[in-house]
Amino acid sequence: MRRTLLIILMALMAVVAWAQQLSEVSGTVVSQSTGQPVAGANISGGGHAVVANDDGYFVLKTEAKPDHITVSHVGYRSQRIDIGSMPKEPLKIRLQPTTIQLNEVLVVAYDPHELMANAIRKIPDNYSRQPELLHCFYRETAMKRQHHILVAEGVVDMYKTAYGTGVGRDRVAIRKGRRLLSPRHSDTLSVKVMGGPIVPVQLDLVKNLQFLLNEEELSYYSMAMEAPAIIADREQLVVAIHPKVAMPYALYHGRFYIDRETLAFTRAELTLDVSDREKATSLMLVKKPAGVRFRPKELSLLVDYRQEQGVTRISYVRSTFRFNCDWRRRLFATAFTAFCEMVVTSHTDGPDAVPIKGRDSFDQRDAFFDKVDYFRDSTFWQDYNIIEPTERLDKAINRLMKR
Description:
Blueprint: H1 2-20, E1 23-31, E2 42-45, E3 48-51, E4 57-62, E5 68-72, E6 76-77, E7 79-82, E8 91-97, H2 104-109, H3 112-121, H4 123-126, E9 132-144, E10 147-160, E11 171-181, E12 192-193, H5 199-202, H6 215-218, E13 221-231, E14 234-243, E15 252-259, E16 265-272, H7 277-284, E17 285-287, E18 292-308, E19 311-327, E20 334-349, E21 373-374, H8 391-402
């Protein structure tokens, strides 16, 4: 019996050891023309994906070493890199900027309103028709002037019903997370702005049509065709939008990238019009203590989609909040920046895409910071794909842990 138990234990240990032996591909993505890092470059391979951080650095973890990886970014020619033929890592990947020569008459011929309407009608054809469970990495940070005062990050699952059904049943659940907060009382920020892991559900613009992509909302904007672009070696038509009427709430400036062949929305870049502070504040601010004056400076949103085997799905979401807070008894205002991003690292579909139960889901009234544990283990993310911290953020994390 002891021998049997020993064999079973050894077998279990072998399984655990195998599960932890993930293959890693790492490197830095730079522009071939300038040598500068290509922040936000998409790297995929072996059924997994990550994005490069602001330093252009990435680590892609897979169960088995992929034969190749694909690196892409808007405005650059995609690169397929055969891993077996590459020298020792980390890789240095140089993306070549690209321009496309579309017939000028052809571009002018597109009516932006009609193009947007046709792309909206094509959403059920271009996006998933079945439920999916997206596995993601999420990070949020807050800075007071130039210093980090909060870092929180986690692995989350995002359950999405079929496109065309709305986001009412889409949910997010935290699977693992950690946090750091500056212990200095003067750094305490009790102001809460719109954010959290639920934001990618709300900002999936092609699914949450109530946000912006509906006939009534788009009627408040003027539209114009801009120069076309390339994303993942596919031609993109670009539509710029700007507010043309005054509404009781703040509107956006921005642009949409639409795949010329499929008419799928592939990227959205939006910036809130903060010219009216009261309107911008009502959208950005969730709560604040009495006596604090909130002054909005910027709210910018980026939503990326990636096409895989004929299906386009959300791949990356980023939001940036900049605002000033001043206290009535203080002479100067203090500048704050709140930043959050989420990358979809892999997905599950079919029968294995099990819905997230209500009691496990993250509520938009919750604070992500309150749902995760304190930073401890340096190998916390050893088995997960993450957005690698930039050198600056890594130093900030080390400083906060030492306080």
